[in-house]
Each structure stands twice: as structure tokens, then as C-alpha cells.
Amino acid sequence: MKVLAYTSPARGHLYPLVPILDELDRRGHSIAVCTLASQVSLVRERGFAARPISRAIEELQHDDYRARTPLGKMKRGMAKFGLRAEHEVADMRAAIDEERPDAILVDAMSWGATAVAEAWGGPWSQWFPYPMPLSSRDAPPFGPGLKPPAGPLDRLRDRALRPMLTRSVQRACFPSLNAVRASVGVRPFSTIDEMYTVPPLILYM
């Protein structure tokens, strides 16, 4: 079986996947990886086929440090993922055409590549290299970096803030994300949780 792995431009997203690729290789599967240009030679030295992701994607570097508030940082970060997604569609399609994979592994933060994998029709999975921000009454709402609730007052805080913060996240990412999804023929998302539950398999790290 040939497996195509597609990463976002971050070593912290590639490196956690390597042990899984090693195990697939050990079991006799062929591996091809699309990742940062700077990491292609290292991936090849490991025995995998590798090609760089589009330069246009790598050039869209995060600038969330310019924001003045945690919520502002989150919005800038989401906007950058949305811009990258537009370029990932053609890049992922080209990789599929070139590699002819039997299965695809795609980075959770590669929104355009994820949409293409979903529309592709073959078996695919997504990996998630850090805590998944699924909504939960036991965790604070995603975005501003609130501490976990320690008592009733914190839970009240979370219940009050969750709708507002959830709407902020959706406004930050859904227009660009759903436009990309529509362009490849997959359904739009209506909730944040759908972003992390649509894959048929999640490799959660």
C-alpha cells in the first residue's frame, strides 16, 4: 500500500508523525511525504519519498505575535490557516496525481488539503499533534488561554464566555474555510467541533 502524508509548514507537525510513518514502513508500506522544503532531505534520508509543499504556503508565515490580545492572536492565526488552505487545494491534488496513493494522512491544520482528502474518495486519516479544542463542559472555551475551571465560579465563567468565543472563532475561520471546502465539493462546517470530527480516523497525539 502507498501512503501519502501531507503536513502543514511546521516541524512540530511533521516530527510527531515520523514514528507512525516508520511503523508503516516497517510493515512494508510505501511512504511519500509532502512537507517543509527544509525538511525534505531529512525525510528522504529516513527512506521515504518526499517533495516540498508549495512555496506559496510556506511564505504565509504566522504573525499572530503582532496581535495585542489572546483573542486577536487566535484570529490572526486562523486567518493564516485560511489563506494557506487556498494554495493547499492545488498542491494536494498535484501530490495525489503524482503519487497515486492508496491512503492519505493529512495534517489537521492543513484545511485545504483536508478538504481535498475528504473529496478524494479513498481512505484517509487526519493527525492532530496537540490538545484538540473540542467543546466540553470540563474545559474552558478555546481561544484566550483560560485556565481549566477550579470551581463553580470558573464553570459559570466558561458557560458565559463559550457562546461569544465560539462565535468569534467561527467568524475568524469559517468564511475562508467553507469557501475552500465548497470549491472542492464537500459540505461546509457549521460548528467548530465538526472541523475535528469529520475525518473517518483521527491519529490523536
What this model shows, in words?
The chain has 205 residues and is α/β, with parallel strands linked by helices. Helix content is 49%, strand content 14%. Strands 3-2-1-4-5-6 form a six-stranded parallel β-sheet, with helices on both faces. The radius of gyration is 18 Å and the shape is globular. It starts with a strand and ends with a strand. The relative contact order is 0.15. The mean pLDDT is 90.
Summarize the structure.
By secondary structure, the chain is of the alpha/beta class. It is built from 8 helices and 6 strands.
**Structural class, please?**
alpha/beta
What is the average per-residue confidence, as pLDDT, rounded to a whole number? 90
Query: What is the radius of gyration?
Result: 18 Å
| β-strand amount | 5-15%
Neighbour order of strands in the largest sheet: 3-2-1-4-5-6
How far the N terminus sits from the C terminus, by CA atoms, comes to 24 Å
Order of helices and strands: EHHEHEHHEHEHHE
How many strand elements?
6
Low-confidence stretches: none
